[in-house]
Structure formats: structure tokens, C-alpha cells
Specification:
Blueprint: H1 3-20, H2 30-43, H3 47-55, E1 56-58, E2 66-70, H4 72-85, H5 92-99, E3 103-112, E4 122-127, E5 130-132, E6 136-143, E7 158-167, E8 176-183, E9 186-193
Antiparallel strand pairs: 1-2, 2-3, 3-7, 4-5, 4-8, 6-7, 8-9
């Protein structure tokens, strides 16, 4: 291969690689919105599983803490897919609510032995040594289905989703972050790179 051709190929590869993960999308262009909606329609009733796999983090074992990054892009994909599976499509109001949102939603799933066990849990992010607290936080818990022949009683009998909302103007969407869940003075952390998410 000639040197000029090799340089051109290297530059092209660098451009393609560099554009894959630059930063989490805080503002979506009309084309990006349409692409997210199209992907959702294509996934249909499989959209939640698809997005959870791509945007998930944490332990994969049955009762380990794990979570999902809920970006504007992923919310559009999920909304479009779920509605398409029922023959519908998102309203302009729903789309505008997601597109104009000022915060990044991060859900962390935890398991416990009673209803309300996660009500006292808190979260925060750490970026470049700086702590960022969520603008708002809420815990929704439900009885965890036993399944797989497991007994209905016993640990863990309950599942909670701790939803945290971090203002975009307080985080760096192109940087790594540590997500910290504080539960009863014990900390569980997750390392993520926001640039890996659209």
C-alpha cells in the first residue's frame, strides 16, 4: 500500500472510531430524533430488552445491584417501540417532554427484605473528583417475583428502583463518572463512561 493511501485509510479509521463515542447527547437534532423513533419502531415489543442491554450497568447476577442510564435518545427509542407494538406513535407533547428535559435519569435496581427498604437510599455522581448530587430522587418498590421454584418468603422478597435525576449543566456528558448508591451507610459504586451512551 502506498504511503498516501495508508495515511488516508488511517485518517478515515480514526474519524469513524472517534465519532462513535464523543459525548452523551444533551441536545438532539431533528434527524437524531427521527433515527431514535425509527429504531424504536423496528424493535417494537422487544425495545425494552434491547435498550436495557445497551444502557445497563452493574452486576448481572440475580440479586446484585444494577442500573440503566436513561438518556433522551434511549427514552425516545423505548417510547416509540412500546407504542409501535400497539399500533401507536408518540404525541408531540411526549416528544417535547423528552427532548426539552434538563436532566439525565439514572435508575438503580436494588433488592431487600421489606417494602420501603430503599426509601432512605441516596445517590450521587463523582466526576473529576467532584461530587454531583441529583436534582431529585425517588424509590419505587414492588414485591419481587420468586420464580425458578424459589420460595416466596425469604431474602430478597422486594425489588426497588431508585430513580435519580442529574441536571445536564452539572455533569460532563463526555467524561467518565462514578455512580454511587448509598444504602444504610454502605456504598456501592459503578464506573461508567457517559460518552459510551447516546
Amino acid at each position: 500500500m502506498k504511503v498516501p493511501t495508508m495515511v488516508l485509510v488511517c485518517l478515515l479509521c480514526a474519524c469513524l472510531h472517534g465519532s462513535a463515542a464523543e459525548a452523551l447527547l444533551v441536545s438532539l437534532s431533528p434527524q437524531e430524533v427521527e433515527e431514535a423513533l425509527r429504531q424504536g419502531r423496528e424493535k417494537g415489543d422487544q425495545v425494552a430488552e434491547y435498550v436495557n442491554r445497551i444502557y445497563g450497568f452493574g452486576k448481572e447476577d440475580r440479586h446484585g445491584e444494577n442500573g440503566i442510564i436513561r438518556t433522551k435518545w434511549s427514552k425516545l427509542v423505548v417510547l416509540s417501540g412500546l407504542l409501535a407494538a400497539r399500533g401507536g406513535k408518540p404525541s408531540e407533547e411526549d416528544l417535547n417532554g423528552i427532548i426539552t428535559s434538563t436532566d439525565l435519569q439514572i435508575d438503580i435496581h436494588a433488592f431487600g427484605d421489606r417494602m420501603g427498604f430503599a426509601d432512605s437510599y441516596t445517590t450521587h455522581l463523582v466526576q473529576s473528583g467532584r461530587r454531583v448530587d441529583p436534582e431529585k430522587i425517588a424509590a419505587d418498590d414492588v414485591v419481587y417475583p420468586a420464580g425458578d421454584g424459589a420460595a416466596v418468603s425469604g431474602f430478597p422478597g422486594y425489588h426497588a428502583t431508585v430513580r435519580s435525576y442529574f441536571l445536564y449543566d452539572k455533569i460532563n456528558p463526555a467524561d467518565r463518572a462514578e455512580i454511587v448508591l448509598v444504602k444504610n451507610k454502605k456504598k456501592v459504586s459503578f464506573e461508567i463512561n457517559l460518552a459510551d451512551y447516546k
